[in-house]
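Q: Sequence in, structure out?
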Amino acid sequence: MEGKDNKELKMNRILVCSLIIVLFHLVGLYGFLSPALEDLFIKLVPFHLLLMLLLMVLTVNDRSADLIKFVIGIYLAGFFIELIGVNTGLIFGNYTYGTALGIKLWATPLLIGVNWLILVYCTGVFLHQFNLKSRLLFSALGAGILLGIDFLIEPVA
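A: Exactly. Output:
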């Protein structure tokens, strides 16, 4: 019986977090589409991103060393790839970041690693539902999804 209660608690936690995510994104969409609110909502982006990270952490039961290594690795990889890109023009071409993502180190927002972590983790969770047997296929689909997301959000980011 205790296993069933834990499963229900986890599902309730996921549902509540999902509803919060949808609500915050809808409010954010409204804020960014409203000229009078746009500047305020740009200032709120770092807090929004940290809230999304917190909600992600609250829905993950795994606290293993492997997951912690994964989280740190993805954060650092995302940050340093962006750092190289911003400062050299390699990888993604010439680009810069505005102020929306907050504090920067060498012209690269510290939160960009959090953004990549959320995107990579959520893409992996989505693909995991398909029980793909091939790691190569899993990786290729994941890369394609992330590329598609980047392609869609880059013009408005």
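The chain is about 75% helix and 5% strand.
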